[in-house]
Amino acid sequence: MAAVLAVGVATLDWIQLVERYPEPDTEIRAQQQYLWRGGNATNTLAVLNQLGHGCSWLGTLADDSFAEVICADLDKNQIDYSFCPRVNHSVSPTSHILLSQQTSSRNIVHYRSLRELNSTDYAKIDFSQWDWIHFEGRNVEETLALLRHLKSQHPTITLSLEIEKPRNHIEQLFEYSDHCLFSRHYVHSQGYDLAEKFLRDMAAKTNNDQKLICAWGEKGAMLLTNEDKYIEVPAQKIDVIDTRAAGDVFNAAYINACLNGEELLQSVEQACDLAARKCAQLGLDNLSN
């Protein structure tokens, strides 16, 4: 078992399952409704806990009633959040998610006014207690400062970075991450149609020890080996029920495989397999069985 810290956000997700997306100025009835804790970093930790690792989360918490729901779920998943600052007179981030049975897709409306993590929040934390630290690619200025600190003061800790969305200056974070996990959305946002061209261009800008992976949804994932060989790992063929948090599950399975000593290709294969299992069910429970 390894000790893993994830740095990012936690949200409260209101999820409604509908037959199809509504037309403008119409009303439809939801078939089911769920209230779940969300957020990329905490989703990844929930899965890593199932896979047997000790998990901690670092991010900001509001002081409203929604935060108590978030904390109750973190407790259930044995995720330590004792390092997280509480922000007075604040509101928890929320996401309203529509899941369409017709298209097996989702639409999300996200609200966030809670402040981001800053250097004062983590100045006194002893990071040497963790073996692996995973970052959401957000809050770029503060994330960059923390990555630089970790590389300088704790060089033996493995660092991974999820790059899901384009953000101003996010490319500054790449060189400090041992594992860069790019989304298809990010690759397309940079003007690339194909993962291979993107990965080869990225490899030319980074050091040879970095692991560069593109998660590509229903098409699986793509990677470059240390021998500069491009490999496509296909996704399992499944009946899709819910793609929510599939990328977070991919990241968790990849981190778990690496911690277990698997080679890069096997780690990506295991990540694709577990992400597919997640898409065939609602929620994150029982993924380790």
Number of helices: 8
What's the total number of strands?
15
Q: Roughly how many Å apart are the termini? A: 17 Å
Helix content: 25-40%
- Helices and strands, in order, run as EEEHEEHEEEEHEHEEHHEEEHH
In short:
This protein has 289 residues and is of the alpha/beta class. 30% of the residues lie in helices and 26% in strands.
Chain-wise SSE layout:
Layout: E1 3-7, E2 11-18, E3 32-38, H1 40-50, E4 54-58, E5 61-62, H2 65-76, E6 79-80, E7 86-87, E8 94-100, E9 105-111, H3 119-122, E10 132-136, H4 140-153, E11 158-163, E12 179-183, H5 184-189, H6 195-205, E13 211-215, E14 221-224, E15 230-233, H7 246-259, H8 264-279
Parallel strand pairs: 1-4, 1-10, 2-8, 4-6, 5-7, 10-11, 11-12, 12-13
Antiparallel strand pairs: 2-3, 8-9, 13-14, 14-15
Helix pairs in contact: 1-7, 7-8
Which descriptors apply to this entry?
alpha/beta; 8 helices
What does this structure look like?
It is a single chain. Helix 7 (246-259) packs antiparallel against helix 8 (264-279). The longest helix is centred in the C-terminal third of the chain and has 16 residues, at 264-279. The protein has helices at residues 40-50, 65-76, 119-122, 140-153, 184-189, 195-205, 246-259, 264-279; strands spanning 3-7, 11-18, 32-38, 54-58, 61-62, 79-80, 86-87, 94-100, 105-111, 132-136, 158-163, 179-183, 211-215, 221-224, 230-233. Strand 10 (132-136), helix 4 and strand 11 form a beta-alpha-beta unit. A nine-stranded mixed beta sheet has the order 6-4-1-10-11-12-13-14-15, with helices on both faces. It contains eight helices and 15 strands. It is α/β, with parallel strands linked by helices. The mean pLDDT is 94. It has a single domain (3-279), classed as 3-Layer(aba) Sandwich (UDP-N-acetylmuramoyl-L-alanine:D-glutamate ligase), CATH 3.40.1190.20.
